[in-house]
Structure formats: C-alpha cells, structure tokens
Amino acid sequence: MLGNEYDKYAIILLINEAKWWADFTTDEDEFITKVDLLCGEVVEKHERLDTHSIFEVITDHVDLNDNNYFTQTILIYGRDQTVPTLFDTKNKKYIEIRNSSNFTFDLIFLHDGKVSESIQAIYDVWGEFESNLIPGWYYEASLFQGKDRLSKALIQLISHPSQRGNQQNIEDEII
Predict the structure, then answer these.
(1) What burial class does residue 49 get, using C-beta atoms within 10 Å of its C-beta: 0-12 exposed, 13-18 middle, 19+ buried?
(2) Which of 6, 99, 108, 114 has its CA 20 to 30 A from that of 66?
C-alpha cells in the first residue's frame, strides 16, 4: 500500500447510501481481506446514490478537528448510468468537511466512454463538490481502458491537494 506504517485505511461502501464498511487500520492484510470481501457485497445494481450520506458517514467516523491527521478520501465511481443526487452545498456536514484543511476528497469516475447525457450529468454533479475556499479536490473523469490509465489517475492523487490544478483546467476530455 502507499504511504508509511502510520497511514490508516478504511472503506466506505456506496450502495444507495454510503455505508461504513471497514474501520481504519494499518494492517495491510486486514485491509486486503476487506477489499476481497467487497466482491460478495457488490452484487446488485443500485439506481441512485445519496451524496449527502457520504458526508454523514465521514463526519461520523473521522475527527476533522484533529490536526495530527490528514484524511484523504478516494472515491472510485463506476456507475455510468446513475446520476448521484446533488446535495445542498450549504449543509453543515458538507461545509465542515469542505472547509477542513486536513481533508481532501478525490474521485475517479470510471465509465465505458460511450457518449451519453448521463456521463456528463454525473461529471457535473461531482464537479459541484469543488470549492474555491480550499482548492485541490480532484475529479478524474475519463475513458479507462486498461490499467495504465487507471494507474495514471491514481498516481495523480498522490500529489498534495494544494499542488493540484483546478478540475476545469484539466485538458483530458471526459469522453
């Protein structure tokens, strides 16, 4: 895994709502076992995703006031026909997370590259998460064919959020 022996990893499962799946751990074997167990959990298609629930779950399990930790959420979204529900960006939980200097939210949108209105709509919803207060939240939306493109997106997430460009200025095409 990336990082060092002090890094901790957790998993949030996205069904119709976000669900805390695995608590923070530094144990690589335990984390890999939890990832493997996801294969049995993800067996049905979900027609919606309540984005508000993502922030609820994060604030329930992460102490954003503890400056000893930096929390990086990496959301891998592969529902190219499911447009997430857009939440109120004035919501207290969203503002708390968005204004935290020790938190970043990264997203990789995996889709098949077929031209559709839903792909653009999904991209637009995730783009609403970005803020001018603390820039650096990153959204990758691209046709992924093979591990090289996915690896490129994951490697870009390693850079510190303050060193990243604005999503709107990234020259990769959505499709």
Answers:
(1) buried
(2) 108
d(CA 64, CA 84): 25
- Walking along the chain (175 residues) 10 residues at a time, the average pLDDT comes out as 73 90 88 82 77 89 88 83 84 81 81 77 82 64 60 63 58 48
Beta strands at 71-77 and 138-143: parallel, antiparallel or unpaired = unpaired
Q: Which of 23, 27, 26, 3 shows the shortest CA–CA distance to 11? A: 23
Q: What is the pTM of this model?
A: 0.74
Element containing residue 33 per DSSP (H, E): helix 28-41
Q: How many Cβ atoms from other residues are within 10 Å of residue 82's Cβ?
A: 18
Residues near 134 by Cβ (< 8 Å), separated by ≥ 6?
Answer: 98, 99, 100, 101, 161
User: Pairing relation of β-strands 18-25 and 103-111?
Assistant: unpaired
